[in-house]
Amino acid sequence: MTTQLILVRYALRACLPARRRLGLLLPAVGAVLFGLLAHAVEGASRAEAFAEVASAGLFGIILPIGALVVGDAVLGAEVRTGTFHFTWLSPVSRVGIVVGRWLAGTIVAGATLSTACALAAVVAGVPRAAPAMAASVLAGTAAYIAVFVLVGAATRRAVVWSLGVVVLGERLLGAALDGVAQLSPGWLARAAYGGLSGAGELLRAGVPFGWAAVWRLALVAAVALAVAARRLQSLRLSGQGE
Amino acid sequence: MSAGARVQVDNVSAWFGQKVALSELTVEFGPGVTGLLGPNGAGKTTLLRIVTGLLPASRGAVRVAGGDPRQDATVRRVVALVPEDEAVPGPLTARQLVRYRADLNGLGHGGIAAADRALDQVGLTGVADRRLEGFSKGMRQRAKVAAALVSDPQVLVLDEPLNGADPVQRVKLIALFRRLGDDGRTVIVSSHVLHEVERLAERIVVLVNGRLAAEGDRRAIRDAMVGRPRRVLVRASTPRALGAALVAQEAVTGVTVDGDVLTVATARAGDLALALPRVARQVGARLREVRPLDESLESIFRDLVR
């Protein structure tokens, strides 16, 4: 068995057991409800109504929250509870550990959230937007998980910092500054969907869209993982609850 | 069987903010079992985490098998840690945890047999397929020992490994650790209980307030600890008669009487323990309570560093 497979299997079993994965059903159900909400938007076509709801609800709430739950579980929570040494104190490379954790998180969150958001498109009456929604949510999830893995490797209060990244970094700074939005998983995922589905109202000047946004998300994930691996090298594992 | 590797701690200091956990500590660990003794807060856990690379030293250097435990992956292959923390990945079974450690250490197909062997060594074979979250503290501790042993480490670092273990398991674990030391592995065992360390290790290192307080053969350490003057409280039915008789004993250096309570000062507590029932019988006194007044390990450790 390859090292990556060992790490992914451990993360799925130990960090994301079945009952925690069930916890992801909540944002998944929320996604579908947002799809239903699109029917309540007046004075717009089905596609425009869904794009509006997706922008605020799916990319603004469901995607970051769902990814945060999983992204924290695969590394930050283990560091906090004091069980990460079982993995850290081994000859496996730090890059291998980070990639293994990210893969496990992306598999679980990506599968759940992209399916739920695609279903939301169907429920909203825009089934042709479902593939674009699934692809952009999957790419956004992968980038978010990588960022949250980095936060878990860099700080003890990973949840607080992760929320800070989303609320302060993406929502406030990202809304005001194009430079921040160009690196923000939330803004890029939104632009990816806008470009792939033809929802022009989700595009933003200066932010790549469509497949270019997907590639940018991949780049953000790669950089976050590289920094996380480097950060893991200097991680201080002081023990349970410290 | 693996040969032990040397662990060299050279002038190491560690601090967390304003708190100094270790101060200019120089000590070496070699093959065999070494007991690391000290009161709570002495810096034992910090030292063990630095030795295994989980924490960096603020100053100084640590070498394990010639390498830096923070940087060298080869060192992480020869070191295993059983931390004091109770934390275990609850959703896993004991077998899954031990197999995971075997797989990470590249044991491949041999990992299955190695895991079974490690679980058997700690007496968990019968419950190996139960989830760790349902384990008692002692069972979790043994699962962590199995996870450490599965990679056949040259250096085994055990932080309070007997915590939570029942008396039978204690005896078995002590025998296991001694056997590992006799095999030539470097085994470092920390504890704040003197008699526990005595049963485990020939060599003892004593830490107090982050400094090396004493180091050497366990008998010499014990003599240094038990040869100090101490006071014993005795509650008896005829305190004055008993006090007068005790004063005549060689082991007793002074007696004060307050109501039915005697405070007996001695430099030879062992001799006093033997003499007291005999003297009480001779004067017809009934002993109601006998307890040391300053027997806490902290007070003993403090005396050691004076």
Describe the protein's architecture and organization.
- The complex is a heterodimer of chains A (242) and B (306).
- The longest helix of chain A is centred in the first third of the chain and has 36 residues, at 46-81.
- Chain A has helices at residues 3-15, 18-23, 25-37, 46-81, 85-88, 94-123, 130-154, 158-176, 178-181, 185-197, 211-233.
- Chain A is mainly alpha-helical and 242 residues long.
- Chain A has one domain (3-233).
- The mean pLDDT of chain A is 92.
- Chain A is globular.
- Chain A contains eleven helices and no strands.
- With 306 residues, chain B is an alpha/beta fold.
- Chain B has two domains: 7-225, P-loop containing nucleotide triphosphate hydrolases (Rossmann fold, 3-Layer(aba) Sandwich), CATH 3.40.50; 227-305, Alpha-Beta Plaits (2-Layer Sandwich), CATH 3.30.70.100.
- In chain B, strands 5-6-7-3-8-9 form a six-stranded mixed sheet, sandwiched between helices. A four-stranded antiparallel sheet of chain B has the order 11-12-10-13, covered by helices on one side. A three-stranded antiparallel sheet of chain B has the order 2-1-4, with helices on one face.
- In chain B, a hairpin with a 2-residue loop joins strand 11 (252-258) and strand 12 (261-266).
- The longest helix of chain B is centred in the middle third of the chain and has 16 residues, at 167-182.
- The two termini of chain B are 42 Å apart.
- The interface between A and B is medium-sized, with 28 and 35 residues.
